[in-house]
């Protein structure tokens, strides 16, 4: 029987993955003086969705190592990655402080599911690879803090998704068995983390994650939702069948 619904944050409750992708794209374009275009970064970003900040930066650095090194001559790889992080965070925080921009990226139907399961007395959790400060900004903007029993971020774990640590920690805090937990994710890394923790997982895909999630073939088609309008019905149907 399902007793808890665990939501990823970025790309699941709010399309901050799109904003994150744009912030990295802008930062790398600026640092390489345009030799790497924003489109190039955006086109390749899907493979990094769901990773920790360190994982994303390392992946982008390896992909664009040559132009980054050429334009940041004299800096070692660690310093170059730090420059990417610093530049990208400044851009991203400007985006998060733009309430109109942020609210336009809320995932309406996924948030509706959260409100519904909270009202129906399921335990509700956010488990995200975002840093605490950024997650708090987004959760406050969405007005859902009072509907969450637990919020876990990257600072609460040692190993990021696709490692299952964050979901295993949720299970321990809730004092539940894995099969009593249902995870709502958008990215392949997040899906793998939930499955590795032994939990039930639904994928609600978006343009950044859709092709990779389908191609990976780690979830049965019935657990992949491309149209978020179907989410509430599909989740409640599964909960009913699992009783």
Quick structural overview:
This protein has 243 residues and is an alpha/beta fold.
Q: Biggest β-sheet, characterized?
A: 6 strands, parallel
Return the CATH class of the largest domain.
Alpha Beta
CATH architecture label of the largest domain: 3-Layer(aba) Sandwich
Count the DSSP helices. Answer: 12
Assembly annotation: single chain
Pfam families: HAD_2
InterPro entries: Beta-PGM-like, HAD-like_sf, HAD-SF_hydro_IA, HAD_2, HAD_sf, PGP-like_dom2
GO molecular function: catalytic activity; metal ion binding
Organism: Arenibacter palladensis
Describe the structure.
The chain is α/β, with parallel strands linked by helices and 243 residues long. It folds into two domains: 4-15 and 104-241, Rossmann fold; 17-101. The protein has helices at 16-31, 38-44, 53-63, 65-71, 77-97, 99-103, 108-119, 132-142, 165-174, 188-196, 210-216, 231-241, and strands at residues 4-7, 123-127, 150-152, 181-185, 200-204, 224-225. Strands 3-2-1-4-5-6 form a six-stranded parallel beta sheet, with helices on both faces. It is elongated and about 60 Å long.
């Amino acid at each position: 029987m399902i007793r808890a619904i665990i939501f990823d944050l970025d790309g699941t409750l709010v399309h901050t993955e799109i904003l994150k992708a744009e912030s990295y794209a802008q930062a790398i374009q600026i640092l390489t003086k345009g030799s790497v275009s924003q489109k190039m970064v955006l086109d390749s970003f899907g493979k990094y969705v769901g990773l920790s900040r360190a994982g994303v930066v390392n992946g982008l650095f390896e992909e664009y190592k040559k132009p980054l090194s050429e334009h940041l001559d004299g800096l070692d790889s660690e310093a170059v990655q730090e420059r990417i992080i610093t530049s990208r965070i400044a851009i991203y925080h400007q985006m998060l402080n733009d309430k109109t921009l942020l609210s336009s990226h809320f995932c309406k139907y996924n948030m509706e599911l959260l409100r519904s399961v909270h009202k129906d007395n399921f335990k509700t959790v956010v488990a995200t690879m975002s840093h605490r400060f950024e997650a708090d900004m987004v959760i406050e903007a969405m007005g859902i803090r009072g509907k969450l029993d637990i919020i876990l971020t990257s600072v609460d774990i040692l190993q990021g998704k696709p490692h299952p640590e964050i979901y295993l920690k949720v299970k321990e805090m809730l004092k539940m068995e894995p099969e009593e937990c249902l995870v709502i994710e958008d990215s392949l890394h997040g899906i793998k983390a939930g499955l590795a923790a032994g939990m039930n997982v639904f994928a609600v895909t978006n343009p950044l994650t859709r092709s990779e999630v389908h191609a990976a073939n780690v979830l049965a088609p019935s657990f992949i939702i491309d149209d978020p309008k179907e989410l509430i019905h599909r989740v409640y149907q599964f909960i009913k069948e699992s009783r």
